[in-house]
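Final report, results section. Input specification for complex C-07:
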Amino acid sequence: MTKQLPLIQFDQVGVSIHGKAILAGISFDMNAGDKAVFRGKSGAGKSTVLKTLLGLYPLARGTVHFQGKPLDKSVIAEIRRCAAYIGQEPVLGAETVRDALLLPFQFKAHSGNKPSETTMIKALRTLHLPETILSQDCSRVSGGEKQRIALARGLLLGKSLYLLDEVTSALDVESKQAVFDVFADPKLTVLSVAHDSDWVALCGRVFDLEGGNITEEKRNGDA
Amino acid sequence: MGTLDIGMTQMATLFGVVLLPWLLISLLGLKLNQVIAVSLLRMTVQLGLVGIYLKTLFTLNDPWLNGLWIVVMLVVADLTILRRAGLKRRYFFLATFMAVAASVVFSTAYLLLLVIQPPLLYDARYLVPLTGMILGNCLQGNVIALERFYTGLRKNENEYLTYLLLGATRWEAVRPYFREAVKAAVNPGLAYMATMGLVTLPGMMTGQILGGGEPWTAVKYQIAIMLCIFTSTTLACILNLKLSLNLAFNEFDILMEEVVEKR
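Structure output:
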Protein backbone atom coordinates (compact mmCIF):
# COMPACT_ATOMS: atom_id res chain seq x y z
CA MET A 1 0.00 0.00 0.00
CA THR A 2 1.42 3.43 -0.96
CA LYS A 3 1.77 5.97 1.81
CA GLN A 4 -0.59 8.94 1.49
CA LEU A 5 1.23 12.22 0.80
CA PRO A 6 0.82 14.91 3.44
CA LEU A 7 -1.52 17.73 2.46
CA ILE A 8 0.95 20.38 3.67
CA GLN A 9 4.66 19.92 4.13
CA PHE A 10 7.09 22.60 5.36
CA ASP A 11 10.72 21.57 5.13
CA GLN A 12 13.35 23.87 6.71
CA VAL A 13 11.33 26.90 5.68
CA GLY A 14 12.95 30.27 6.28
CA VAL A 15 11.15 33.54 5.61
CA SER A 16 12.51 37.07 5.91
CA ILE A 17 10.41 40.20 5.85
CA HIS A 18 12.14 43.54 5.17
CA GLY A 19 15.47 41.85 5.80
CA LYS A 20 14.45 40.44 9.18
CA ALA A 21 14.30 36.66 9.59
CA ILE A 22 10.82 35.73 10.80
CA LEU A 23 10.89 31.99 10.22
CA ALA A 24 14.30 30.47 10.82
CA GLY A 25 13.82 27.06 9.22
CA ILE A 26 10.68 25.29 10.38
CA SER A 27 9.60 21.81 9.37
CA PHE A 28 6.24 20.14 9.88
CA ASP A 29 3.60 18.33 7.88
CA MET A 30 -0.15 17.92 8.05
CA ASN A 31 -2.58 15.45 6.57
CA ALA A 32 -6.05 16.24 5.28
CA GLY A 33 -8.47 16.51 8.19
CA ASP A 34 -5.76 17.45 10.73
CA LYS A 35 -6.39 20.30 13.11
CA ALA A 36 -3.19 22.09 14.09
CA VAL A 37 -2.45 25.19 16.08
CA PHE A 38 0.65 27.36 16.39
CA ARG A 39 1.27 29.03 19.72
CA GLY A 40 3.87 31.54 20.70
CA LYS A 41 4.62 35.08 21.71
CA SER A 42 3.79 38.02 19.49
CA GLY A 43 6.38 38.25 16.71
CA ALA A 44 7.27 34.56 16.95
CA GLY A 45 6.23 34.06 13.31
CA LYS A 46 2.88 32.30 13.79
CA SER A 47 0.88 34.31 11.26
CA THR A 48 3.80 34.14 8.84
CA VAL A 49 3.38 30.35 8.67
CA LEU A 50 -0.20 30.76 7.40
CA LYS A 51 0.67 33.57 5.00
CA THR A 52 3.67 31.70 3.60
CA LEU A 53 1.40 28.85 2.61
CA LEU A 54 -0.78 31.34 0.74
CA GLY A 55 2.21 32.67 -1.21
CA LEU A 56 2.15 36.07 0.47
CA TYR A 57 5.82 35.86 1.45
CA PRO A 58 8.63 34.46 -0.65
CA LEU A 59 10.72 31.64 0.81
CA ALA A 60 14.25 32.64 1.81
CA ARG A 61 15.10 28.94 2.09
CA GLY A 62 13.53 25.52 2.37
CA THR A 63 10.51 24.16 0.54
CA VAL A 64 6.76 24.05 0.99
CA HIS A 65 4.76 21.28 -0.64
CA PHE A 66 1.01 21.16 -1.02
CA GLN A 67 -0.51 17.82 -2.02
CA GLY A 68 3.05 16.71 -2.79
CA LYS A 69 3.77 19.57 -5.18
CA PRO A 70 6.21 22.43 -4.50
CA LEU A 71 4.78 25.93 -4.41
CA ASP A 72 4.50 27.49 -7.82
CA LYS A 73 1.93 29.65 -9.59
CA SER A 74 -0.53 26.82 -10.20
CA VAL A 75 -0.11 25.29 -6.72
CA ILE A 76 -0.67 28.69 -5.07
CA ALA A 77 -3.80 29.10 -7.19
CA GLU A 78 -4.97 25.66 -6.02
CA ILE A 79 -4.29 26.51 -2.36
CA ARG A 80 -6.18 29.78 -2.67
CA ARG A 81 -9.01 27.90 -4.37
CA CYS A 82 -9.49 25.44 -1.53
CA ALA A 83 -8.30 27.49 1.47
CA ALA A 84 -10.02 30.18 3.48
CA TYR A 85 -7.86 32.59 5.46
CA ILE A 86 -9.55 34.34 8.34
CA GLY A 87 -7.49 36.88 10.22
CA GLN A 88 -8.06 38.73 13.46
CA GLU A 89 -9.58 41.67 11.61
CA PRO A 90 -11.12 40.14 8.49
CA VAL A 91 -11.85 42.45 5.59
CA LEU A 92 -15.45 41.98 4.49
CA GLY A 93 -14.95 44.17 1.42
CA ALA A 94 -18.57 45.26 0.94
CA GLU A 95 -21.15 47.62 2.34
CA THR A 96 -23.64 45.11 3.73
CA VAL A 97 -23.18 41.64 5.15
CA ARG A 98 -25.20 40.16 2.28
CA ASP A 99 -22.86 41.78 -0.26
CA ALA A 100 -19.87 40.59 1.75
CA LEU A 101 -21.12 36.99 1.61
CA LEU A 102 -21.75 37.30 -2.11
CA LEU A 103 -18.47 39.09 -2.87
CA PRO A 104 -16.44 36.03 -3.96
CA PHE A 105 -19.23 34.95 -6.29
CA GLN A 106 -18.59 38.05 -8.40
CA PHE A 107 -15.23 36.56 -9.32
CA LYS A 108 -14.96 34.30 -12.32
CA ALA A 109 -13.74 31.38 -10.18
CA HIS A 110 -17.05 31.18 -8.27
CA SER A 111 -19.48 33.02 -10.53
CA GLY A 112 -21.60 29.96 -11.25
CA ASN A 113 -22.11 28.97 -7.61
CA LYS A 114 -23.93 31.97 -6.18
CA PRO A 115 -25.70 30.78 -2.99
CA SER A 116 -29.39 31.27 -2.39
CA GLU A 117 -30.73 33.40 0.45
CA THR A 118 -31.65 30.22 2.33
CA THR A 119 -28.14 28.81 2.02
CA MET A 120 -26.68 32.05 3.30
CA ILE A 121 -29.04 32.09 6.28
CA LYS A 122 -28.17 28.47 7.04
CA ALA A 123 -24.44 29.25 7.03
CA LEU A 124 -25.00 32.23 9.31
CA ARG A 125 -27.12 30.18 11.73
CA THR A 126 -24.45 27.48 11.88
CA LEU A 127 -22.20 30.15 13.34
CA HIS A 128 -24.86 31.55 15.69
CA LEU A 129 -25.50 34.65 13.62
CA PRO A 130 -29.07 35.91 13.11
CA GLU A 131 -30.45 36.19 9.58
CA THR A 132 -31.22 39.88 10.22
CA ILE A 133 -27.49 40.54 10.06
CA LEU A 134 -27.66 40.05 6.28
CA SER A 135 -28.92 43.56 5.67
CA GLN A 136 -26.68 45.16 8.28
CA ASP A 137 -23.91 47.54 7.35
CA CYS A 138 -20.49 45.85 7.67
CA SER A 139 -19.11 48.88 9.47
CA ARG A 140 -21.61 48.26 12.30
CA VAL A 141 -20.82 44.62 13.03
CA SER A 142 -18.49 43.68 15.89
CA GLY A 143 -15.05 42.08 15.52
CA GLY A 144 -16.39 38.67 16.56
CA GLU A 145 -19.27 38.91 14.10
CA LYS A 146 -16.87 39.89 11.33
CA GLN A 147 -14.81 36.77 11.99
CA ARG A 148 -17.89 34.56 11.87
CA ILE A 149 -19.17 36.27 8.70
CA ALA A 150 -15.77 35.59 7.12
CA LEU A 151 -16.06 31.96 8.27
CA ALA A 152 -19.58 31.74 6.84
CA ARG A 153 -18.18 33.01 3.54
CA GLY A 154 -15.63 30.20 3.64
CA LEU A 155 -18.39 27.65 4.27
CA LEU A 156 -20.44 29.02 1.37
CA LEU A 157 -17.42 28.63 -0.87
CA GLY A 158 -17.11 25.00 0.21
CA LYS A 159 -13.53 25.49 1.39
CA SER A 160 -11.81 22.45 2.85
CA LEU A 161 -8.69 24.06 4.34
CA TYR A 162 -9.05 26.80 6.94
CA LEU A 163 -6.16 29.05 7.91
CA LEU A 164 -7.34 30.75 11.04
CA ASP A 165 -5.51 33.56 12.80
CA GLU A 166 -6.91 34.03 16.32
CA VAL A 167 -10.47 33.51 15.17
CA THR A 168 -11.90 32.87 18.59
CA SER A 169 -10.21 35.84 20.24
CA ALA A 170 -13.29 38.06 20.06
CA LEU A 171 -15.97 35.40 20.63
CA ASP A 172 -18.19 34.66 23.60
CA VAL A 173 -18.49 31.09 24.89
CA GLU A 174 -21.58 30.26 22.83
CA SER A 175 -20.18 31.60 19.56
CA LYS A 176 -16.90 29.87 20.23
CA GLN A 177 -18.73 26.57 20.62
CA ALA A 178 -20.48 27.17 17.30
CA VAL A 179 -17.11 27.64 15.62
CA PHE A 180 -15.74 24.51 17.35
CA ASP A 181 -18.71 22.51 16.09
CA VAL A 182 -18.09 23.60 12.50
CA PHE A 183 -14.47 22.49 12.62
CA ALA A 184 -15.26 19.18 14.29
CA ASP A 185 -16.02 18.02 10.73
CA PRO A 186 -13.26 15.49 9.89
CA LYS A 187 -13.29 16.60 6.24
CA LEU A 188 -12.03 20.07 7.18
CA THR A 189 -8.34 20.73 7.67
CA VAL A 190 -7.40 23.51 10.05
CA LEU A 191 -4.07 25.27 10.41
CA SER A 192 -4.45 27.94 13.04
CA VAL A 193 -2.80 30.45 15.29
CA ALA A 194 -4.26 30.82 18.77
CA HIS A 195 -3.61 31.50 22.41
CA ASP A 196 -7.07 30.45 23.53
CA SER A 197 -6.68 27.28 25.64
CA ASP A 198 -10.11 25.94 24.57
CA TRP A 199 -9.12 26.20 20.94
CA VAL A 200 -5.71 24.64 21.61
CA ALA A 201 -7.45 21.74 23.36
CA LEU A 202 -9.63 21.19 20.29
CA CYS A 203 -6.66 20.90 17.94
CA GLY A 204 -5.03 17.53 17.59
CA ARG A 205 -1.59 19.01 17.04
CA VAL A 206 0.06 21.86 18.87
CA PHE A 207 3.25 23.59 17.72
CA ASP A 208 5.11 25.99 19.97
CA LEU A 209 6.93 28.65 18.01
CA GLU A 210 9.69 30.85 19.39
CA GLY A 211 12.00 33.15 17.47
CA GLY A 212 10.94 31.61 14.18
CA ASN A 213 11.67 28.03 15.29
CA ILE A 214 9.35 25.24 16.35
CA THR A 215 10.51 24.51 19.89
CA GLU A 216 7.97 21.80 20.70
CA GLU A 217 5.34 19.73 18.97
CA LYS A 218 2.62 18.02 20.94
CA ARG A 219 -0.23 15.80 19.93
CA ASN A 220 -3.25 16.31 22.11
CA GLY A 221 -3.84 13.14 24.02
CA ASP A 222 -0.06 12.70 24.42
CA ALA A 223 1.02 12.35 28.01
CA MET B 1 -2.31 91.05 -37.75
CA GLY B 2 0.56 89.50 -35.75
CA THR B 3 1.32 89.49 -32.03
CA LEU B 4 3.03 92.62 -30.68
CA ASP B 5 6.60 91.66 -29.82
CA ILE B 6 8.01 92.38 -26.36
CA GLY B 7 11.33 94.21 -26.57
CA MET B 8 14.29 93.48 -24.30
CA THR B 9 13.68 96.63 -22.20
CA GLN B 10 10.05 95.64 -21.69
CA MET B 11 11.20 92.10 -20.82
CA ALA B 12 13.46 93.55 -18.14
CA THR B 13 10.53 95.68 -16.92
CA LEU B 14 8.38 92.53 -16.82
CA PHE B 15 10.49 91.06 -14.04
CA GLY B 16 9.59 94.09 -11.94
CA VAL B 17 6.09 92.64 -11.54
CA VAL B 18 7.40 89.94 -9.20
CA LEU B 19 9.15 92.39 -6.88
CA LEU B 20 6.03 93.04 -4.80
CA PRO B 21 5.10 89.38 -4.12
CA TRP B 22 8.80 88.64 -3.55
CA LEU B 23 8.98 91.43 -0.97
CA LEU B 24 5.81 90.20 0.78
CA ILE B 25 7.13 86.63 0.87
CA SER B 26 10.38 87.93 2.41
CA LEU B 27 8.48 89.96 5.01
CA LEU B 28 6.49 86.88 5.95
CA GLY B 29 9.80 85.16 6.64
CA LEU B 30 9.04 82.27 4.27
CA LYS B 31 12.71 81.89 3.31
CA LEU B 32 11.84 81.35 -0.31
CA ASN B 33 14.20 83.97 -1.76
CA GLN B 34 16.62 81.45 -3.18
CA VAL B 35 13.84 79.21 -4.50
CA ILE B 36 12.16 82.13 -6.24
CA ALA B 37 15.44 83.29 -7.79
CA VAL B 38 16.30 79.78 -9.01
CA SER B 39 12.79 79.20 -10.38
CA LEU B 40 12.73 82.47 -12.29
CA LEU B 41 16.21 81.90 -13.64
CA ARG B 42 15.49 78.32 -14.66
CA MET B 43 12.26 79.26 -16.39
CA THR B 44 13.94 82.06 -18.31
CA VAL B 45 16.95 80.00 -19.38
CA GLN B 46 14.87 76.92 -20.24
CA LEU B 47 12.33 78.84 -22.27
CA GLY B 48 15.12 80.82 -23.94
CA LEU B 49 16.76 77.58 -25.03
CA VAL B 50 13.42 76.16 -26.18
CA GLY B 51 12.86 79.37 -28.15
CA ILE B 52 16.20 78.97 -29.91
CA TYR B 53 15.50 75.28 -30.56
CA LEU B 54 11.95 75.84 -31.81
CA LYS B 55 13.10 78.62 -34.11
CA THR B 56 15.66 76.24 -35.63
CA LEU B 57 13.07 73.49 -35.78
CA PHE B 58 10.54 75.71 -37.55
CA THR B 59 13.17 77.04 -39.97
CA LEU B 60 14.52 73.63 -40.96
CA ASN B 61 11.14 71.89 -40.75
CA ASP B 62 12.82 68.52 -41.18
CA PRO B 63 10.63 65.44 -40.50
CA TRP B 64 13.47 63.56 -38.75
CA LEU B 65 14.38 66.48 -36.55
CA ASN B 66 10.72 67.03 -35.65
CA GLY B 67 10.37 63.34 -34.86
CA LEU B 68 13.52 63.39 -32.73
CA TRP B 69 12.18 66.35 -30.77
CA ILE B 70 8.98 64.43 -30.05
CA VAL B 71 10.96 61.39 -28.89
CA VAL B 72 12.97 63.63 -26.54
CA MET B 73 9.72 65.09 -25.17
CA LEU B 74 8.33 61.58 -24.66
CA VAL B 75 11.46 60.43 -22.80
CA VAL B 76 11.43 63.48 -20.53
CA ALA B 77 7.70 62.99 -19.90
CA ASP B 78 8.28 59.31 -19.12
CA LEU B 79 11.01 60.08 -16.57
CA THR B 80 8.91 62.83 -15.01
CA ILE B 81 5.84 60.60 -14.68
CA LEU B 82 7.79 57.86 -12.93
CA ARG B 83 9.68 60.21 -10.64
CA ARG B 84 6.52 62.02 -9.56
CA ALA B 85 4.53 58.80 -9.20
CA GLY B 86 7.31 57.32 -7.03
CA LEU B 87 7.95 54.30 -9.24
CA LYS B 88 11.29 52.89 -10.29
CA ARG B 89 12.46 53.60 -13.82
CA ARG B 90 14.13 50.25 -14.34
CA TYR B 91 10.78 48.48 -13.97
CA PHE B 92 8.39 50.88 -15.69
CA PHE B 93 10.36 53.00 -18.15
CA LEU B 94 9.49 51.00 -21.25
CA ALA B 95 5.84 50.38 -20.32
CA THR B 96 5.19 54.05 -19.56
CA PHE B 97 7.00 55.12 -22.72
CA MET B 98 4.97 52.72 -24.85
CA ALA B 99 1.64 53.67 -23.27
CA VAL B 100 2.21 57.42 -23.48
CA ALA B 101 3.80 57.32 -26.94
CA ALA B 102 1.01 55.17 -28.41
CA SER B 103 -1.75 57.36 -26.97
CA VAL B 104 -0.12 60.68 -27.88
CA VAL B 105 0.78 59.53 -31.40
CA PHE B 106 -2.76 58.22 -31.92
CA SER B 107 -4.43 61.47 -30.78
CA THR B 108 -2.02 63.76 -32.60
CA ALA B 109 -2.22 61.71 -35.80
CA TYR B 110 -6.03 61.72 -35.60
CA LEU B 111 -6.03 65.49 -35.16
CA LEU B 112 -3.54 66.16 -37.95
CA LEU B 113 -4.66 63.54 -40.47
CA LEU B 114 -8.42 63.79 -40.11
CA VAL B 115 -9.12 67.23 -38.72
CA ILE B 116 -6.51 69.93 -39.35
CA GLN B 117 -4.95 68.32 -42.44
CA PRO B 118 -1.96 70.66 -42.84
CA PRO B 119 -0.23 70.61 -46.27
CA LEU B 120 2.81 69.02 -44.59
CA LEU B 121 1.84 66.47 -41.95
CA TYR B 122 5.17 66.83 -40.17
CA ASP B 123 4.99 70.63 -40.25
CA ALA B 124 6.69 71.71 -36.99
CA ARG B 125 4.28 74.63 -36.59
CA TYR B 126 1.43 72.17 -36.00
CA LEU B 127 3.16 68.97 -34.94
CA VAL B 128 5.37 70.28 -32.15
CA PRO B 129 2.93 72.52 -30.20
CA LEU B 130 0.00 70.12 -30.56
CA THR B 131 2.07 67.12 -29.44
CA GLY B 132 3.49 69.20 -26.60
CA MET B 133 0.05 70.21 -25.32
CA ILE B 134 -1.37 66.72 -25.56
CA LEU B 135 1.73 65.21 -23.94
CA GLY B 136 1.81 67.76 -21.12
CA ASN B 137 -1.74 66.92 -20.09
CA CYS B 138 -1.15 63.23 -20.57
CA LEU B 139 1.81 63.50 -18.21
CA GLN B 140 -0.31 64.95 -15.42
CA GLY B 141 -2.98 62.30 -15.87
CA ASN B 142 -0.45 59.47 -15.79
CA VAL B 143 1.22 60.78 -12.64
CA ILE B 144 -2.17 60.83 -10.90
CA ALA B 145 -3.18 57.40 -12.25
CA LEU B 146 0.02 55.59 -11.28
CA GLU B 147 0.42 57.32 -7.95
CA ARG B 148 -3.22 56.78 -6.97
CA PHE B 149 -3.22 53.16 -8.08
CA TYR B 150 -0.06 52.03 -6.31
CA THR B 151 -0.75 54.08 -3.19
CA GLY B 152 -4.30 52.71 -3.08
CA LEU B 153 -3.06 49.19 -3.44
CA ARG B 154 -0.45 49.55 -0.71
CA LYS B 155 -2.84 51.31 1.67
CA ASN B 156 -5.50 48.66 1.13
CA GLU B 157 -3.15 45.69 1.05
CA ASN B 158 -5.36 43.58 3.34
CA GLU B 159 -8.40 44.22 1.19
CA TYR B 160 -6.48 43.35 -1.98
CA LEU B 161 -5.18 40.13 -0.41
CA THR B 162 -8.68 39.26 0.77
CA TYR B 163 -9.93 39.50 -2.81
CA LEU B 164 -7.10 37.25 -3.98
CA LEU B 165 -7.80 34.72 -1.25
CA LEU B 166 -11.48 34.73 -2.14
CA GLY B 167 -10.59 33.51 -5.61
CA ALA B 168 -10.12 36.77 -7.50
CA THR B 169 -7.61 36.87 -10.32
CA ARG B 170 -5.00 39.62 -10.17
CA TRP B 171 -7.11 41.73 -12.51
CA GLU B 172 -10.30 41.15 -10.49
CA ALA B 173 -8.51 42.00 -7.25
CA VAL B 174 -6.95 45.25 -8.51
CA ARG B 175 -10.03 46.43 -10.39
CA PRO B 176 -11.44 48.70 -7.60
CA TYR B 177 -8.12 50.56 -7.31
CA PHE B 178 -7.70 50.62 -11.09
CA ARG B 179 -11.10 52.25 -11.51
CA GLU B 180 -10.38 54.82 -8.79
CA ALA B 181 -7.02 55.66 -10.36
CA VAL B 182 -8.45 56.18 -13.85
CA LYS B 183 -11.30 58.25 -12.43
CA ALA B 184 -8.88 60.44 -10.47
CA ALA B 185 -6.74 60.91 -13.57
CA VAL B 186 -9.52 61.96 -15.95
CA ASN B 187 -11.65 63.96 -13.49
CA PRO B 188 -9.57 67.19 -13.47
CA GLY B 189 -9.66 67.30 -17.28
CA LEU B 190 -13.43 66.79 -17.31
CA ALA B 191 -13.94 69.50 -14.70
CA TYR B 192 -11.69 71.82 -16.70
CA MET B 193 -13.71 71.11 -19.85
CA ALA B 194 -17.00 71.67 -18.06
CA THR B 195 -15.99 75.14 -16.85
CA MET B 196 -14.05 76.16 -19.95
CA GLY B 197 -14.97 79.63 -21.17
CA LEU B 198 -16.88 80.37 -17.97
CA VAL B 199 -14.20 80.23 -15.32
CA THR B 200 -11.11 79.93 -17.48
CA LEU B 201 -10.12 81.16 -20.89
CA PRO B 202 -7.98 78.33 -22.21
CA GLY B 203 -4.33 78.84 -23.06
CA MET B 204 -4.37 77.64 -26.63
CA MET B 205 -7.33 79.83 -27.52
CA THR B 206 -5.83 82.86 -25.82
CA GLY B 207 -2.55 82.22 -27.64
CA GLN B 208 -4.26 82.04 -31.00
CA ILE B 209 -6.26 85.21 -30.40
CA LEU B 210 -3.11 87.04 -29.25
CA GLY B 211 -1.39 85.69 -32.36
CA GLY B 212 -3.99 87.39 -34.52
CA GLY B 213 -6.21 84.37 -35.16
CA GLU B 214 -9.98 84.58 -35.62
CA PRO B 215 -11.79 83.88 -32.32
CA TRP B 216 -14.03 81.34 -34.02
CA THR B 217 -11.01 79.42 -35.41
CA ALA B 218 -9.39 79.63 -31.97
CA VAL B 219 -12.52 78.10 -30.41
CA LYS B 220 -12.49 75.22 -32.90
CA TYR B 221 -8.80 74.55 -32.23
CA GLN B 222 -9.46 74.62 -28.49
CA ILE B 223 -12.27 72.08 -28.80
CA ALA B 224 -10.07 69.89 -31.00
CA ILE B 225 -7.17 69.94 -28.58
CA MET B 226 -9.39 69.29 -25.55
CA LEU B 227 -10.95 66.23 -27.16
CA CYS B 228 -7.53 64.89 -28.10
CA ILE B 229 -6.15 65.59 -24.62
CA PHE B 230 -9.07 63.71 -23.07
CA THR B 231 -8.58 60.79 -25.45
CA SER B 232 -4.83 60.53 -25.05
CA THR B 233 -4.93 60.94 -21.27
CA THR B 234 -7.59 58.26 -20.83
CA LEU B 235 -5.92 55.84 -23.24
CA ALA B 236 -2.44 56.39 -21.80
CA CYS B 237 -3.60 55.96 -18.20
CA ILE B 238 -5.48 52.73 -18.90
CA LEU B 239 -2.69 51.33 -21.05
CA ASN B 240 0.03 52.37 -18.64
CA LEU B 241 -1.74 50.86 -15.63
CA LYS B 242 -2.51 47.69 -17.57
CA LEU B 243 1.10 47.26 -18.71
CA SER B 244 2.39 47.97 -15.21
CA LEU B 245 0.29 45.11 -13.83
CA ASN B 246 2.64 42.70 -15.59
CA LEU B 247 5.71 44.29 -14.03
CA ALA B 248 4.84 45.20 -10.46
CA PHE B 249 3.66 41.85 -9.10
CA ASN B 250 5.40 38.57 -8.40
CA GLU B 251 4.18 35.27 -9.78
CA PHE B 252 1.82 34.88 -6.79
CA ASP B 253 0.17 38.26 -7.52
CA ILE B 254 1.82 40.05 -4.62
CA LEU B 255 2.93 43.64 -5.22
CA MET B 256 6.75 43.74 -5.16
CA GLU B 257 7.98 46.37 -2.71
CA GLU B 258 11.11 46.98 -4.76
CA VAL B 259 9.19 48.57 -7.65
CA VAL B 260 8.26 51.56 -5.49
CA GLU B 261 10.72 54.32 -4.65
CA LYS B 262 11.36 54.69 -0.91
CA ARG B 263 10.33 58.17 0.23
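Chain B has a mean pLDDT of 93. Chain B touches chain A through 18 residues (CB under 8 Å). This concludes the modelling results for the funded period.
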